[in-house]
């Protein structure tokens, strides 16, 4: 029997980016906040220090900062006519764990979505007519527009201290920035990073081809920066240990480096680490949640924490399963198309173009997680789809993220993977290779969804999330198109060898693709096709809000965190300025 | 006789490896403090190379194994030396400490199945869904070596470590291609797991027992630590940045 605790104003389930932002905004508004985080606390000055933070085996290969699959994983199948098997190790994506969440160990590539990504169905219908959108493509408008979110994108970028170059300042196109981006109210808070050799070569080639290259928006500090919370971030050392690592220089935007130094001093915020939320207590008649049940993993004891408001601020799978375990909202059924929880699950259709240069020294280890040059010419609605047989697109970037040798030592196609010939090729090409990343969108499809697995359980005895997912024809065609454009840039760069690998065939959970999983609790304007309204408030529980990329109705051709941060500030604003004055449904269903 | 043979082969292989590394020892810088104190093998006297530099004592001697049997260690030695053959780019896999590395990994939390979802039921892998073995990595490698040696013996009359280098490479190639028929587990998944461990041992920080003298980092030109390049990324743009590599031990 769960031990019942005293009620608090707010409980947050998960303490990554969204939990940290919400804890800050709601405690500032005078509310008492309890954050439940199932992973450990993480303190940069103790946990992320030289020399051990440069241990590729420990952090990158053994994935120390990631969720432990023994605690909870997901099961996977390609389609409903197959039985699902558990991901016994994480591969294609890497869920985070601990205070700071995935924000601790990301690369910090922080984009805004295009204005049209927020109103996708309306825009595509207007531009191409209804018939262009396949029947089984479940794309939707967000219910909130880019113009409404701009101030919140800006706020998140200032919290992070992003390094970059604006391409559109209040409608004026700026040289050197992304001319396709939505308008910005302000320049980036930090100047762009110093480009790598490969980045300079990409920029030159892309310019020659008539594209508009710009520096990747980076949560790596080009110079030391004090954010609006008064927290100082250090200058990036270009060490090439961002993704899967914490930053010893406090030079990477993360909850740990931007907000937690303030939150740990805030008496209204209590972070309970190693506390694993198992379900919400739901008052269906009253259309609200009343408490969060959790297990303290240090003792195994179960608690019921009553709360005035609850925010799901876990990752995509965590948010979705919490609703399914708690019986809140109708689970999605792909056969009938009815129900909403688990709907619109998407990933990122990433592909790579490897480039090798016989006569160039690239020093791949001089790198940073967001150090890159990008073109956005083939993203979303930046180009006309009238004459192509797919929808969507993505950016193409040459990112110099790392030269860590266990996992990153490319050799030209056709090279054996061991033996003398492999050694010779590795010795020759390690310093002369780079990789382009085609960050393809993933538009929701009727057959791709999340529900609960009938067989496999987590350590609390709850069913695991079951992921039913595969690439669609649209995805494959989009990836072929985008990857070919990338290969064109590789040719213009004068590469000796080019290895272009569009996504083909079926999805595979083993090779890493990206941790840009989205959907499962989509936002929208219609409770029949969405879980939360434009304020990310649950249609069936007015004091329950769902944060993070699980609310995306589809994934755009960008890394998701910029949009996640903007949406979180948007929700905080709505809660503080609207909901607290009249705690009820902000939108009539 | 069959009991004693693997151990003897393991030791003979080690001695041969020591001789091999002596001839290419010139790249081993004497000021690196990584060589283990027990590294002075009898035949490893420093000698002068044609360039006049003093070659350091090769620091490879087979170390006591924590969990691998002599047969298993001999198999992994033979495999590691085919996957990473000694040449003028680096010593062989075993000389670089790969067997010590793999033994250490399999003896620890990784080998015991940490950070894996291990609950049943179990079923055969499906395309795209990842490995589904009920075994821990230690058990999986053990079962794989046993199966591999059975197959190798059937085909060549000897276990892997008894074969000539060209035959070892041929046998591993058959496993890599999934063409070696093992009784229970697939030869390709086994080879994939083995290859991954060998590469980890070759390229990881030397504190785990492999990558001795940072041989692989020297080979590719990876500088290791501390990796602070804010003042170098522009000055070395397009120019090779070549320094004596440093590892975690150099900063501890």
TrEMBL record, chain A:
Coiled coil: none annotated. Residues 446-567 form the Glucose-methanol-choline oxidoreductase C-terminal domain. InterPro entries: FAD/NAD-bd_sf, GMC_OxRdtase_N, GMC_OxRtase_C. Keywords: FAD, Flavoprotein, Oxidoreductase. PANTHER family: LONG-CHAIN-ALCOHOL OXIDASE (PTHR46056). It comes from the Bacteria. It holds the Pfam family GMC_oxred_C. The lineage of its organism: Bacteria, Pseudomonadati, Pseudomonadota, Alphaproteobacteria, Rhodospirillales. This is GMC family oxidoreductase. The keyword ATP-binding does not apply. One of its GO terms (molecular function) is oxidoreductase activity, acting on CH-OH group of donors.
TrEMBL record, chain B:
Residues 39-51 have a biased composition (Low complexity). The keyword Signal applies. Keywords: Signal. Residues 1-28 form the signal peptide. Pfam families: Gluconate_2-dh3. Residues 39-58 are annotated as: Disordered. This is Gluconate 2-dehydrogenase. The lineage of its organism: Bacteria, Pseudomonadati, Pseudomonadota, Alphaproteobacteria, Rhodospirillales.
């Amino acid at each position: 029997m769960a031990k019942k605790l005293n009620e608090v104003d707010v409980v947050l389930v998960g303490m990554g980016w969204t939990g940290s932002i919400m804890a800050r905004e709601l405690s500032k508004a005078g509310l008492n906040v309890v954050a439940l985080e199932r992973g450990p606390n993480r303190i940069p000055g103790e946990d992320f220090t030289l020399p051990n933070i440069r241990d590729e085996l420990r952090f990158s290969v053994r994935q120390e900062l990631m969720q432990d699959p023994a605690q909870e994983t997901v099961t996977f199948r390609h389609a409903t006519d197959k039985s699902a098997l558990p991901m016994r190790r994480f591969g294609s994506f890497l869920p985070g764990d601990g205070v700071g969440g995935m924000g601790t160990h990301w690369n910090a590539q922080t984009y805004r979505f295009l204005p049209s990504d927020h109103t996708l169905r309306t825009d595509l219908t207007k531009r191409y007519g209804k018939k262009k959108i396949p029947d089984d493509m479940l794309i939707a408008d967000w219910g909130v527009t880019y113009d409404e979110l701009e101030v919140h994108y800006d706020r998140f970028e200032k919290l992070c201290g992003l390094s970059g170059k604006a391409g559109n300042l209040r409608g004026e196109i700026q040289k050197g920035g992304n001319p396709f981006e939505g308008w910005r109210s302000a320049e980036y808070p930090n100047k762009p990073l110093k480009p790598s050799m490969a980045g300079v070569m990409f920029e030159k080639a892309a310019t020659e081809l008539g594209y508009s290259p710009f520096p990747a928006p980076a949560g790596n500090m080009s110079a030391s920066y004090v954010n609006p919370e008064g927290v100082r971030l250090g200058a990036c050392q270009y060490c090439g240990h961002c993704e899967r690592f914490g930053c010893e220089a406090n030079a990477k935007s993360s909850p740990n480096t931007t907000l937690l130094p303030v939150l740990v001093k805030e008496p209204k915020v209590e972070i309970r680490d190693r506390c694993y939320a198992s379900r919400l207590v739901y008052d269906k008649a009253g259309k609200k949640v009343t408490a969060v049940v959790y297990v303290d993993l240090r003792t195994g004891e179960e608690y019921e924490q009553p709360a005035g408001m609850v925010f799901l601020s876990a990752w995509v799978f965590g948010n979705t399963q919490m609703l399914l375990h708690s019986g809140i909202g109708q689970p999605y059924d792909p056969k009938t198309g009815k129900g909403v929880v688990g709907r619109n699950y998407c990933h990122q259709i990433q592909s790579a173009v490897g480039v090798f240069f016989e006569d160039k020294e690239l020093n791949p280890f001089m790198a940073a997680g967001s150090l890159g040059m990008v073109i956005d010419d083939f993203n979303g609605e930046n180009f006309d789809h009238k004459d192509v047989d797919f929808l969507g697109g993505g950016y193409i970037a040459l990112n110099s993220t790392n030269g860590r040798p266990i996992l990153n030592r490319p050799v030209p196609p056709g090279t054996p993977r061991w033996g003398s010939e492999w050694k010779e090729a590795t010795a020759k090409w390690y310093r002369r290779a780079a990789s382009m990343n085609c960050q393809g969108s993933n538009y929701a499809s009727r057959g791709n969804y999340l529900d609960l697995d009938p067989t496999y359980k987590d350590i609390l005895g709850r069913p695991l999330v079951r992921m039913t997912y595969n690439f669609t024809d649209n995805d494959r065609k989009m990836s072929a198109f985008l990857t070919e454009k990338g290969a064109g840039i590789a040719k213009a760069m004068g590469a000796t060898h080019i290895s272009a690998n569009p996504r083909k065939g079926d999805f595979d959970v083993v090779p890493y693709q990206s941790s840009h999983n989205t959907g499962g609790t989509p936002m929208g304007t219609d409770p029949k096709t969405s879980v939360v309204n434009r304020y990310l408030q649950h249609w069936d529980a007015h004091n329950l809000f769902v944060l993070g990329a699980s609310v995306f109705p589809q994934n755009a051709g960008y890394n998701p965190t910029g949009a996640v941060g903007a949406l979180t500030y948007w929700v905080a604003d709505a809660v503080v300025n609207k909901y607290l004055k009249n705690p009820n449904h902000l939108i009539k269903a | 006789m069959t009991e004693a043979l693997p151990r003897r082969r393991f030791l003979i292989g080690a001695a041969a490896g020591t001789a091999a590394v002596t001839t290419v020892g010139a790249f081993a810088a004497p000021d690196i403090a990584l060589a283990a104190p027990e590294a002075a093998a009898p035949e490893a006297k420093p000698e002068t190379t044609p360039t006049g530099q003093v070659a350091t004592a090769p620091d490879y001697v087979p170390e006591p194994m924590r969990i691998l049997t002599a047969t298993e260690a001999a198999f992994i030695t033979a495999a590691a030396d085919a996957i990473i053959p000694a040449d003028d780019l680096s010593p062989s896999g075993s000389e670089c400490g790969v067997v010590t590395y793999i033994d250490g990994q399999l003896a620890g939390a990784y080998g015991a199945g940490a950070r894996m979802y291990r609950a049943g039921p179990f079923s055969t892998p499906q395309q795209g869904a990842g490995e589904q073995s009920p075994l821990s990595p230690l058990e999986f490698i053990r079962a794989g070596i046993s199966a591999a040696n059975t197959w190798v013996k059937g085909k060549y009359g000897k276990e892997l470590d008894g074969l000539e280098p060209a035959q070892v490479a041929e046998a591993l190639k058959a496993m890599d291609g999934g063409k070696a028929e093992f009784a229970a587990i697939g030869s390709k998944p086994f080879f994939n797991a083995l290859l991954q461990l060998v590469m980890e041992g070759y390229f990881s920080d030397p504190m785990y027992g492999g990558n001795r003298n940072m041989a692989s980092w020297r080979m590719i030109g990876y500088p290791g630590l501390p990796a602070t390049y804010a003042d170098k990324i522009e000055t070395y743009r397009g120019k090779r940045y070549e320094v004596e590599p440093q590892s975690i031990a150099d900063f501890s």
